[in-house]
Amino acid sequence: MAAAARVRNAYSPVSVEDTGQDRLVRAESRTSITRPRRGLSVWTFSLLIIGVCVLFLLGFCLGFYVRESQSSVEDIVAKCREGQEDEEKKTPLVEIHNDIMYRVRGEEIRQFMQDFKQYDEPVSGSLVERKLEQKVRQLLQDYMLDEVEVEEHAVVVTYADPARPNTLQVLRRDNNTVINVTLKNDVTASSDSRSTSHSTTDDWKYPFVVHSPSGVVEGGLVYGHYGSEADILVLRAKRVSLKNRIVLLRLGKVSLAEKVQKVALAGASGVLVYWDPADAKDNSAYPANSSAIPYASAAVYSTESSQPMVPAIPVQTVSTETAAMLLRHLTEEEGALKVPSVWSGGLDLNYTIGRKSNSGNLTVRLSVFNKERKEIVRNLICNIHGTAERDRYVVMGAPRASLPGVSQDALTSTGILLQIARSIRIMHDLKQWKPRRGIKLVSWGGADMGNMGMLWHMKTHHHLLSQRAVAYFDVSQLVVGRDRIAARVSPGLYQVVNEVTETIPDPRRPEYSIQTSWRDYYNSSIVSERVVVPLTSYHSDRSATPFLHVLGVTTVSLQYRDSEKGFVGLSASDMAEYETEHHYKYHAAVARTMVQVMLSMVDGDMIPFSLTGATQELTKSLWQTSQLLQSCSKSMQDLDNVVQLAKELQQTVEALDQLIKMYSERDYQHGGFRMINDVKMLFERLFVSQTNGVPHHLLYPTDSDGSISRVSDLCEAGDIAEVWDATEELSRTLYTILTEAIAALRTTN
């Protein structure tokens, strides 16, 4: 009851029996007091609700923040663990690469050389070449790598006839003989003669040009410089006829097969070639003896024939002494034309072109009695399959045969190739390592026949190689000096070469790397933008780098040589003799550099070909070429529109780099990497063109200032000949190719 009363008192009910004023006042008074208390209660309740909501929201936000913070920490920890795992994976791979590299040892190369020291030159078909082939095949099979193939090609080549040597005569109009030379060298036969159906020693005693047809031709003599495109235009501008004449040309700058093709198309009946002293600093093949007649081969890949392109007219090498005699007699010709200043060479005489027409007082008779012979050329191919990309591979090749005078190069190159195969096998046994992409190690046959083994391999597998070959590594002529290493590589590989040479010991100062020694040697002041090992353009002789010029496959060629200031053109044999006393340390250094670059190409998700680096150098080269063309044409021509496209291509590549970065940072499937790698492999191939059935890369070679050599040659002839049609054609071709390249890269983006 008390409780009930308290409730009633609280609510103050009015009794119907209470009709007095007091009741009314009392009721009124209670009502006025009760209302405020009831309102306070509602506000309090509302505030409580609001407070609870605020606290709830604060709690929710705090919880979300804590949860996200914990998630971020977990992500960071996860990424750290991933990085640690990547580093753990990377470290063994670096160790494996280093182990493979250091197993290529100079002492092993020296031992291999000793095994063949008692033999003569390993020319194709000789006893030593056959023994070398058997040795290579046996060792590759013993290493039990994935697969060893023997690829055979039947080819027809020409050799000198020992019973009827080639001859050269110079006759006056009255039939008096001025020069009568039997073209031969002194070659001492080994007691261990070649046990073939023919005497190889006799064959090589009489120098000749492999693939030159036989024939007796005669006509007036013409000096044609190198026989390049620009040289032919100069002769045409001077109205010098080559029809039915013998053309004397310098070796170098242009492949021999291309020289002969150009002068033959102009009507020449025969060609004589020689080494000029002015070219000695540029080529280690220059003979030390001026009376020595060089050996040569003239064959180049052709897209218009099922066979490699070979000369259609007789071709013969002559000694520097004989060439000097010919040039002196040429100056005596009445009406002989002076040469452009850039045509003069290193001989102590006045160079002249000769008469305009074939009606001079002197007649040259060239008698070539070469005989055809069928040869079987064998390539030995060791396949190491990739674990992830079996249809992508690098090719590393070494010549197994050689022209006389460079036999040591064939032997050392073969020894190095076998060292690499052996090292890879050891790493597979010790660490169960195999490359991500494949490796093809090839011992090329027929190298002394104009790289017949390589050319026929490319002819047979052209489609597959153009789609699958990542790079070609040229294991030949590795050492012709002792001062520095020079790298002939695509600009897209500059960075990886620089990185590798930071880790390879300098053979002269093992406590320093090759890169460090290079910096010290040049004091870094001569190199304007960045300190790098010497990076040079590809050889001007396109037949020396067919993978690049035919297939557009980037080619890696490394060479130890003397400095530019004192380059004396040491032969591979001279260096091999020196290296015998020094355990082939220079060969080992070059081989190790090449191995590390090769392993970087086969073992990473992404091929280390820098599109940015390639397009930057492309833009610089085209700009430099445009400036040169504008200057020599007196502002009539330039490549400004091509340079603008190159800059646009560079911007497109920068956008592609962002895509590459995304693939690298995120865990994408390997299909993304493969797409990017295919674009990188495509880059050099875009610039392969062809002239008269001969494919060639438009951007190489380049001069020391970066300009395209073809344009600088044409510019040299610009004051004499009408060369602008050729430069306009080049401009149009480059414009078309760059447009296609931009479209292809944008499709990828």
Tell me about the largest β-sheet. Answer: 8 strands, mixed
**CATH 2nd-level architecture of the largest domain:** 3-Layer(aba) Sandwich
Helical run tally: 21
Number of domains: 3
**Strand portion:** 15-25%
Shape assignment? globular
- Tell me the name of the CATH homologous superfamily of the largest domain: Zn peptidases
Task: State the total count of DSSP E strands.
Answer: 22
First-to-last CA distance: 89 Å
For the CA atoms, what is the radius of gyration?
Answer: 39 Å
Provide the helix percentage: 40-55%
User: CATH class of the largest domain, anyone?
Assistant: Alpha Beta
Distinctive features:
disordered N terminus, 8-stranded mixed beta sheet, 16% strand, 3 domains, Aminopeptidase, 749 residues, Glucose Oxidase, domain 1, 4-stranded antiparallel beta sheet
Topology:
Elements: H1 2-11, H2 21-102, H3 106-115, H4 127-142, E1 147-159, E2 167-172, E3 177-182, H5 200-205, E4 209-210, E5 215-219, E6 221-223, H6 229-237, E7 246-250, H7 256-265, E8 270-274, E9 296-297, E10 315-317, H8 320-331, E11 337-338, E12 352-354, E13 362-368, E14 371-384, E15 389-399, H9 407-431, E16 437-444, H10 452-460, H11 462-468, E17 469-474, E18 484-488, H12 494-501, H13 514-522, E19 535-536, H14 546-551, E20 555-561, H15 572-581, H16 585-603, H17 611-632, H18 640-665, H19 670-685, E21 688-691, E22 694-697, H20 709-717, H21 724-748
Parallel strand pairs: 4-9, 6-7, 7-8, 8-10, 15-16, 15-17, 17-20, 18-19
Antiparallel strand pairs: 1-14, 2-3, 2-13, 5-13, 11-12, 14-16, 18-20, 21-22
Helix pairs in contact: 2-9, 2-16, 3-9, 4-9, 6-20, 12-16, 17-18, 17-20, 18-21, 19-21
